[in-house]
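User: Hi! I'm working on a homework problem where we have to compare a predicted structure to a textbook description. Could you give me the structure for the chain below?
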Amino acid sequence: MKMEFKSEFIKRTKELMGRESGELLEWLMKPLKQAIRVNTLKISVNDLLSRLKLKGWSIRKVDFAEGGFWIDEREESLGNTIEHFLGYYYAQEPASMIPPLILKPEKDDVVLDCCASPGSKTTQMAAMMNNQGLIIANDVSIDRIKILKINMQRMGVSCGVITRRSGQAFSRMTDFFDKVLIDAPCSAEGAMRKKPYIAQEWRVNMIAKLSAIQNQLIEAGFKSLKQGGSLVYSTCTLAPEENEGTINFLLNKYPNARLEKVELSGLKTRPGITSWEGKSFNDEVTKTARIYPMDNDTEGFYVAKVIKE
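Assistant: Happy to help. Predicted C-alpha cells:
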C-alpha cells in the first residue's frame, strides 16, 4: 500500500520538527523491521537463541531492551513457528518494550495495565516479576480481551487477572496499585511504519477527542496509585496534544504529581516539548521522552514516568 500523508499532517510535522520534518516523513514510509522479546517465564535467552540460529535466523540484540532481538533474516513467519506457539517469544516492536522497562515492576507488586490488549506489555511485566505479585490486565473491548487472554495463556502468565471495564472506572480504587501502566489509545501517528493505512485514516479532529479520553485515563490511573507509587504513560503518536498535553493536564491538576526523567541505556530520546500551537506546557515535561523512528529505527513513541508524592 502506497503511503500518502494528509496535507494537515505534513503541516503539523513541519511545525513539530522544523528542518527534520522531511527526514521524519521519509522514515515513516520505511517498513518496520521485525523483532521479538524472549519470554523468560518459559525459556532462557541463550536456549531460544540457539534454537532460532539452528533454523538459520539472523538475529541482533536490541541495545536498549534486555531480551529484545531484531530479526534480520528468517524463513518462517514470526507467528508460525513452534517456538511462537509454545510461548517462547512474543513478536514485539522494540519501542513497545520501553514502557515496562521504565515502570520497573518488581515481584510482589500490584500492577494495573489499564489498556492491556493484546498483551505485549502485560506478558513482559509478568516475566519481569517472575510471575510473582498481581497484574490487573484490563481492557474495555470484549474482542480485544479475547486476544489478551490467548496471549497471556500462551506466554504462561499466572500472576494476571483480566478485567473488562473502562479505564476511567479505576479512579474509584484510590491508593490501590504500586505501579500503573497506561499505554493509551491514540492517533497512532508513530505506527505508520507498521500500519501504512493509518496515514489515510488519520484525521486532525480525532486528536482532540483522544486527548480528552487520555486525560481521563491518566487521572484515573493517578488516583488509583499508592503514595510513592509510579505511573508510566505512553503512546505511539507524535501529537503533542496527546503526549505533553496530557502530562501537562495532570501536573496542573495534581501538585503531588512529580515527573521522573525517562532514560534507558542504549536508547536515544529527545525531551518533551514545552509549547505547541501557542500553548505553553509545564517545563517539567522536558523530563518525558520523545522517540523518533530515525533515532533508533523503531516506531515513533512517547513515554512519561510520574511519581505520586
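For your comparison, note the following. The chain has two domains: 7-30+93-308, 32-92. Residues 32-92 form a domain with the Alpha-Beta Plaits fold (CATH 3.30.70.1170). Good luck with the assignment!
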